[in-house]
Amino acid sequence: MRTEIVAFAQAQARAAARRAAIPAAFALAGGLFVLFAVAGLFAALFFWFEPEHGPIAASLICAAVAIVLAIVSLLPLMFKRRRPAPPPSEGTLPQLVSLVAKTAPNMEPRQLILTAAVLGVALVLSARGNKK
Fold it and tell me: What is the model's pTM?
């Protein structure tokens, strides 16, 4: 029974890691391209202002533009209301209960009592989480 539970938990962990790793990799690659594009735009802005205002004034203008853009991009985060977290999926506990039911005939009485206690605690915790 332990090996089946461990295999079930490992499969769930692998699936969760895959779901998180692929979008994170794409976000990282996209972020790098955006960073290079913004750096190119600030270089162009600097070289546009540098002949008329000099290098120090041009760099200060670029810094001011960067600060204004940072503030504007962070404004939605400051005033955005957070949505409540979605309710957890109810698929894990029934799968675990059916797995225990399949392996129950092969268990000793002590293992059955321990398993029943663990399932009882899991049911209490899941019911307690649904009240909120």
Answer: 0.46
